[in-house]
Every structure is written in C-alpha cells, then in structure tokens.
Amino acid sequence: MKLAENFLDIVRKSRYAVVLTGAGVSVESGVPTFRGKDGLWSKYDPDEYATKEAFERDPVKVWRWLAMGIELILKVEPNMAHIAIAELESLGYVKSVITQNIDNLHQKAGSKNVIEVHGNTLRLRCTACSYREIINMVPNNIPPYCPKCDAMLRPDVVLFGEALPYEEWDRAVDETSKADVYIVVGTSGVVMPAAMLPLIAKGKGAFIIEINPEVTSITRIVDLYIDKKAGEFFSEVMELLSS
Ligand code: OAD
C-alpha cells in the first residue's frame, strides 16, 4: 500500500496531472499487448497486417484482421486501472488521458478527456470522403462501403507508415507540456512519435511516474517507478480513494 499512498499523495498535490497509456493498461481486461512473448506481433507480422502498404496491397486481408480486433474489443470491459484513472479525473486531479490504445476502454470506464493518438477501432471512416460512423458490431460485409460516396470504409486507426491524426497529436503535445505530474502506464515507449511524449514532459520539468511490471525505455527518466501490473496497482489506489 505504501507505493499507492505515495502515488496518491503526489497526484493529490499536483496542479495538472496527465496520464499516458499503452497496451499494458488493457492487459488485465483481456486485450493482448503488441510486443513481448504473447504480444500480437509475435503471432502476426505487422508488415503483412498493420502497415499502410499492407492495406493498399490487400485491404480485405487487413480488414479481416482488424475485424477480429473489433470483435474482441466489443466483448472486453475496463479493469481497475481504467476505472481508477477515470475516478482521478472526476475528482479533478487527472486533467486528460492520452492513449495509444484503440480499444475505447478509457471512455467505457468514464474518462471524459481522452486523446486517442492512434484512433479508435469502434469508429469507421471513409477512405474517400469525410464520412465517419461509430459501430457496436462487426460489419456484416467486409469491407463495408460508404453510404455517402460508395468508397471503402475502414477502421479509423493509425497503421504503421500513416500520420497520426493532427488535432489529437497537437492536443497530446499541448496537454503533455502543461503537466506537472505525468503518469505513464503500460507502454514500452518505443513507437514514435508517442514515445517522445514522456521526454517532452520531462523537458518541461514534470514529475514522471511509470507503472509497468517491466523496465522500459522510459524507466531511466522517471522519478517514481512502480514495478506492478496496472490493474493490481490501481486496485490499491481505488481502495485508498474509497477509505
Ligand atoms: P507494447 O506491446 O509495445 O508494450 C506494452 C507494455 O505493457 C510493455 O512495456 C509491458 O511490460 C507492459 N505491460 C504488460 N502487462 C502489463 C500490465 N498488466 N500492467 C501494466 N503494464 C503492462 O504496447 P504499446 O507501448 O502500447 O501502434 O505499443 C505502442 C504502439 O505500438 C501501439 O499503439 C501500436 C503498436 O504497434 C500502432 O499500431 C500504430
């Protein structure tokens, strides 16, 4: 409990706490990470399924793979980490959550100010016009087509080789620059440009906290490293909040 008490003390005294999350925050919800021995990239070659070129080469193959992700994401629920982060926002301590995840679980847990730098699998966008659609089931026909212009629809997520959504990235940098406490949860910190965010926060003088059961490329710059699984650690935080 000592670490959770220390964490909560720092967060309560903060002026502007910001959270950055990666795949690790959703592991205890049943969503796999990308890297590591059970990670998605150990089963699926990203060059075949997750790049801009792969989608241009064979959109149906990439779509079918993304559809499996949509199916999983529709079934999973937020864990204690998502719930506690949302609670810390509703209490006014956490000002925003920047996530590299595309699983919608922060919003499902109640977080309001979520910045999705890699998009969201439950939103489709037209490959030709500005049409967007929120989905709550896997489309019946893959690929689906735009009801406005007949071009192909695709999940509104960032594939390797594609630019990040400009507005989200801009907001992410802005929020990161304002933070005096920056909480990094469950990311390996190797995918650019998101991996730059903790460095930006550090450069602006923020106190950096990392929650990850494994040491990452970010660990060397953090001020407080919490060597725990996110769901387990945030359960302790929730207990303290409700005591
Ligand atoms: P990674 O798969 O690279 O890293 C997941 C991190 O989560 C690792 O550092 C693990 O140690 C940690 N982890 C595992 N279980 C955890 C738990 N229970 N609690 C806390 N941490 C845990 O995933 P990301 O860093 O999110 O991008 O990957 C970044 C980007 O690379 C993704 O958004 C995706 C991917 O390719 C795109 O697809 C554009």
Structure in words:
- The protein is an alpha/beta fold and 243 residues long.
- It contains ten helices and nine strands.
- It folds into two domains: 154 residues, TPP-binding domain (Rossmann fold, 3-Layer(aba) Sandwich), CATH 3.40.50; 83 residues, 2-Layer Sandwich (SIR2/SIRT2 'Small Domain'), CATH 3.30.1600.
- Helix content is 37%, strand content 18%.
- The strands form two sheets. It has a six-stranded parallel β-sheet, sandwiched between helices. A three-stranded antiparallel β-sheet has the order 5-4-6, with helices on one face.
- Strand 7, helix 9 and strand 8 form a beta-alpha-beta unit.
- The radius of gyration is 18 Å and the shape is elongated.
- The mean pLDDT is 96.
- The protein binds 2'-O-acetyl adenosine-5-diphosphoribose.
- 2'-O-acetyl adenosine-5-diphosphoribose (OAD) binds next to helix 10.
| Main CATH class of the largest domain | Alpha Beta
| N/C terminus separation | 13 Å
Please give the CATH architecture of the largest domain.
3-Layer(aba) Sandwich
User: How many structural domains?
Assistant: 2
The geometry reads as elongated
Radius of gyration, in Å, reads: 18 Å
> Count of DSSP helices?
10
CATH fold-level topology of the largest domain: Rossmann fold
- Give the ordered list of helices and strands: HEHHHHHEHEEEEHEHEEH
Alpha-beta content class:
alpha/beta
Strand percent estimate = 15-25%
User: Mean of residue pLDDT?
Assistant: 96
Q: Main sheet: which strands, in order across?
A: 3-2-1-7-8-9
